[in-house]
Design brief:
oxidoreductase, DAO, 6-stranded mixed sheet, elongated, 9-stranded mixed sheet, alpha/beta, about 25% strand
């Protein structure tokens, strides 16, 4: 007996769930989304992400478990599927104790710990000796991570799903229960998986008031500084950030950023962009030629994305709305990629529970 499943949302969370579910030929998967890979819209966060693996989950939490479970999947894709647009990068993390109370410092608090839980997860972990740290840096670490070219990876996920028989359809829903009637077979879906990110704040039947944006602004340049770099905070503002990452397969280098909670502004701020570029050059002078400032940066474009933050963390749970079996998987903030497989596996387990429950009800 086949299982008719509708997934709403084609960001990294929805596509990863679809990728896993479509590998079982008993599952007939339809993905509904307003925005698809190739679109660049403020409502669609995934294309704007860096994206990389820099764990920020609190030790001992579900978040830690999701990120721990995601690393092997990303490593496997990097090693065995170069067409997915992921590559390994040396990664440098720097912590300034004075940043810990800021919005950015709280976001990065687990990442920048002197003895982080993820030292046993990522390869080549090394605590930097104090003599190698710049003045003002209290501790630092180096390890091997990955950086993802989202413009390649998201379409790759779509392609894998299509190869597995999944069907993709554009749709705008007013109510989440309406998705059950949009399965490609024409039959009612057995389960609907809600992966609509920040749109779950206004989507009928969900309307999650715990959701809010954390605005991120980036500059994408052609310059390549080498290692990925992240710092716990900046001196330019409580909600400004410093990170540098070069995407795989010619995807350019991301210079960031900001972490502006409850800010919905879709337009890049030119003053913030200037600060972002100056911070990046100060942290990685190899970005530009000797003695050059921001004029040495070869800019591809400026970008703004809205991270889907949620009070209490992501919502990965089951419920029934208007007689429709729902599984939610949204609210991943700024860690959607690096927790994508762990969260998707948790959601898939709930889908299986819902299918078993429906089967027992029929019996």
């Amino acid at each position: 007996m086949s299982n008719n499943i509708v997934i709403v949302g084609a960001g990294v969370s929805g596509l990863t769930v679809a990728y896993i579910l479509s590998q079982d030929q008993n599952n007939k998967v339809t993905v509904l989304a307003k925005h698809m890979p190739g679109d660049y819209d403020i409502e669609y966060a995934s294309p704007w992400a860096g994206a990389n693996y820099m764990p920020v989950g609190k030790g001992g939490s579900d978040h830690q478990a999701w990120e721990t479970a995601t690393w092997p999947a990303l490593r496997d894709l990097t090693e065995n599927h170069p067409e997915a647009g992921i590559h390994f990068r040396d990664t440098l993390i720097y912590n300034r104790t004075k940043d810990q109370g800021s919005a950015t410092g709280q976001w990065f608090s687990e990442l920048t710990q002197a003895n982080p839980w993820y030292e046993d997860v990522v390869p080549d972990f090394e605590a930097m000796p104090q003599e190698r740290l710049a003045p003002g840096i209290d501790n630092g670490q180096k390890f091997t991570s990955v950086c993802i070219n989202t413009a390649i990876y998201l379409p790759w996920l779509v392609g894998q799903c299509v190869k597995n028989g999944a069907v993709f359809k554009r749709a705008v829903l007013k109510h989440i229960a309406d998705a059950a009637d949009a399965h490609n077979s024409g039959q009612k879906a057995d389960v609907v998986v809600n992966c609509t990110g920040l749109s779950s704040k206004t989507l009928g039947g969900v309307e999650d008031e715990k959701l809010y944006p954390a605005r991120g602004q980036i500059v994408i340049v052609r310059n390549d500084p080498g290692p990925m770099v992240s710092v716990s905070g900046t001196d330019d503002g409580d909600d400004e950030a410093l990170y540098i990452m070069t995407r795989a397969a010619g995807g350019g280098t991301i210079l960031g950023g900001s972490y502006q909670k409850h800010n919905w502004d879709a337009l890049p701020d030119p003053n913030l962009a200037t600060r972002i570029m100056k911070r990046a050059i100060a942290a990685s002078p190899s970005l530009v030629g000797k003695g050059q400032g921001i004029e040495g940066l070869d800019i591809i474009r400026h970008g703004v994305g809205l991270r889907p933050l949620r009070d209490g963390g992501p919502r990965i749970e089951r419920e029934v709305v208007n007689g429709v079996n729902l599984v939610h998987n949204y609210g991943h903030g700024g860690f959607g990629y690096q927790a994508s497989f762990g969260c998707a596996e948790a959601a898939v387990s709930l889908v299986k529970e819902a299918l078993q429950s429906k089967l027992r009800a029929k019996l």
